[in-house]
Each structure stands twice: as C-alpha cells, then as structure tokens.
Write a structure and sequence with these properties.
With 381 residues, the protein is of the alpha+beta class. The chain folds into two domains: 300 residues, BirA Bifunctional Protein, domain 2 (2-Layer Sandwich); 53 residues. It is 35% helix and 25% strand. The protein is built from 13 helices and 16 strands. The strands form three sheets. Strands 1-5-6-12-11-10-7-9-8 form a nine-stranded mixed beta sheet, with helices on both faces. It has a four-stranded mixed beta sheet with strand order 14-13-15-16, sandwiched between helices. The longest helix has 20 residues. The two termini are 41 Å apart.
Length: 381
C-alpha cells in the first residue's frame, strides 16, 4: 500500500468535532442532567433525528420552517425534516400516550438538533439539548415545576449565579388583536417589538402607548411587576401578570439565591409558545443556558397544557470545569499480563505501551496518567 498523505479538510461553518476533554464533559453533563430529570419523575424517550415533514408539524406550529434542513426520502419520495427542535417530536410521542384531558405526562430527552443557520447567541449549527416536557399541569404549577427542575439540573452540574428571565411571548399580540389591528400592521409592529425600539413601538396604532409601557417595564422582577400592575391592561393580560407574580414568589421560596427578571415582550421565535415563557442564564456565562415555555397540545377536541424546558450544551461545555478523576495507569511494554485486567475490574484506566527504549515516565505524562506500573508495582507519578 502506498503511503497515504491526508489532505487538509475543513468542516462546514458552525459544525465541529467534540474532542477528548469535551466528550468527557458531554458525558458528565448528559448523565447528571438526565438523572436529575429522572428523580423528578420524567421518563426518557429518544425520538429520531429525521422524520416526515407532515409529522413534524402535525401537533405544534413549529418554529421558523425556513431554518430547517429538508431532504427527500428515497423510499417514499416524501419530504423529511432533520429536526431543529425536539419539542414537536415529544408532542407527537405524547399524542400517542395522552388518553383524556385529565392525564398528566412527564417526558425527558437528549439529542442533537441541526439548522441551516446559527444565531448571535448560538453560532453553532449542530447543537445538543437535554430537556423535559410536562403535559397536563395547570399553567402556574407547571411553570414552577419545570423552572425548578431546570434550576436543580444546572446546579447539579455546578452552575451558579442562575438568572431566570420570564417572558410573555403572546402578550403584545393579545393587546394588538384586542385593539383589532390588521395582520399587516401586526407584522410591522412585531419588527419594532423584536428589536425593542421604544420610539417605533409608540407609533403602533391604537395601542402604541400601552405596548411602549410594557416594553419599558422589563427588568428586575419586583420593579417589572410593579410597573406592569400600573398599566391599563385587558383582563387576559392582567391574569397573565398575576400568574407571573405567583410563579416568581414560588421560585424564590424554593431557590433562595436565584435572580429573576421579567421581559414581557420577548419572543424567542417559537411560534407554538403561549402564555408563559422563560430563559435561563448565569451571570458567569455569556450564553443562554436554557429556555422553555407553555404551549397547547390539541388532541381529539381536548386541549392539553404543555410546559417544556430545553438545556443547551454549547454554553455548558465552555463553562463546566470537570476533570476526569478516574485513575489512569501507564503499563510499560514488559509487564505481568495478568495485572491490567485486574486493574480494569477495579476501575483503573490502563494505557498499554508498545514502544521499546522510551522513558516510561515521560510517556505516562503524555497520556495524562496518574500512576505507572514499575516492576509490577503501582507507583504514583
């Protein structure tokens, strides 16, 4: 065989390998997050990476369908989506499990998503998520449980200084529709609301003043709730603000060192979110660590409340300082062959050498070993 010289290769923008230390962190995060979900009663499911477009959009009005990879199934010739969000898949699974409107269901998952374009907060196009979906709980109780599980899970992987940012994704739309704005005006207004341009928001017909007051209320929880309570809101909006107040009080009682902010006009682009939404941050990490919210799953004329949480691995992988504490031992070329199997039974990682005339200690350090086998005796480095 001729000598093969590999060519330099590049991965697509936003796609990357996960190398040794990162894969250890990935395993650590997956194990701890999923265990936390399990202890809170969430049963793990694993939907496929790809499925028919009709299934993916059957139960939820999914997020931006432009930001999704499509392929044609060579067997059925049907259009298929490579998922850019796992929640619609969990909704499909839940649809087969929920029998009546009083059912409660808790499901958890972990897996990768893929999207044609990244964004400013998450430039990667392939992202790993772990999350939970709670079906059948009332809005307030469901939000308290899901947010609390998110805090527990992140605390479990040593994330501190957690901030919960509570949002009301449909509040602005509710007010605009209450003022009978047409669809064209609403779409124009949504652009101003997305960038939070207060001066432009004030120009929205019939409700610019109220919407600008709502936008200006964003900030620390107590200040935001006080400002929102002084705005002349429709009854549905008032109920929503009351629910947020109950959620905030409960979260503060359950988790003493959590900071809560409120951003009432924030909408993170998921069309199916209604009522309450939230994002999770840490003051130690620049990226969003997780997000979630409420949605409605309609089955057989019954409406099931859904409340979800997705934790994103990209920020956690950067922030988590976890070293592999497992003992690693370097085994020189000449050794008793019965020793390595016995060490592995006891949990040691064994690194066998096949080199002659090398300095064993230097080789052991190169392979990050903590010990070396010398004269068939274990020696610490």
């Amino acid at each position: 065989m001729k000598n093969y010289k590999p060519k330099a290769s590049l991965l697509p923008i936003g796609i990357s390998d996960l190398l040794e230390k990162s894969t250890y962190k990935d395993s650590y995060l997956t194990q701890n997050l999923m265990n936390c979900f399990k202890l809170n009663g969430y049963e793990r499911v694993s939907p496929p990476l790809i499925e028919f477009e009709e299934n993916y959009t059957l139960f939820l009005d999914t997020t931006n369908k432009q930001n999704i990879f499509r392929v044609i199934d060579p067997i059925s010739n049907k259009s298929m989506f490579i998922r850019n969000d796992i929640t619609p898949q969990i909704a499909r699974i839940a649809a087969n499990k929920l029998n009546n409107k009083n059912d409660t269901l808790r499901l958890s998952y972990t897996g990768d998503i893929l999207r044609p374009k990244g964004n400013q907060l998450h430039p990667a196009r392939q992202l790993k998520q772990a999350g939970i979906e709670l079906f059948g709980a009332p809005t307030v109780e469901g939000a308290i449980e899901v947010i609390s599980v998110g805090i527990q899970a992140l605390t479990q992987v040593n994330i501190s200084n957690i901030i919960i940012d509570i949002t009301t994704p449909n509040l602005a739309d509710l007010i605009m529709k209450n003022n009978k704005l047409d669809e064209k005006t609403i779409k124009e207004a949504q652009v101003y609301l997305k960038v939070k341009n207060i001066n432009k928001i004030k120009t929205i017909p019939h409700c610019g003043t109220i919407l600008s007051q709502i936008a200006d209320s964003a900030g620390a929880e107590e200040r935001a709730l006080k400002k929102l309570s002084n705005i002349d809101l429709p009854n549905k909006a008032k109920k929503l603000i009351q629910e947020i107040s109950l959620i905030c009080n409960a979260i503060k009682k359950l988790h003493k060192n959590i900071k809560i902010t409120i951003d009432p006009i924030e909408n993170r682009g998921f069309n199916y979110y209604s009522g309450i939404g939230f994002a999770i941050f840490s003051s130690n990490i620049k990226r969003e660590l997780g997000f979630g919210g409420e949605y409605i799953l309609e089955l057989n004329n019954n409406k099931h409340n859904g409340m979800g949480l997705s934790i994103l691995f990209d920020g956690l992988l950067r922030a988590t300082n976890i070293d592999d504490k497992q003992k690693r031992i370097f085994i020189p070329l000449k050794h008793d062959n019965t020793i390595p199997p016995e060490l592995r039974k006891k949990g040691w990682v064994t690194i066998l050498s096949y080199k002659r005339n090398v300095k064993d200690k230097e080789e052991a350090v190169k392979f990050n070993c903590t010990h070396i086998l010398k004269n068939n005796t274990i020696k610490a480095l």
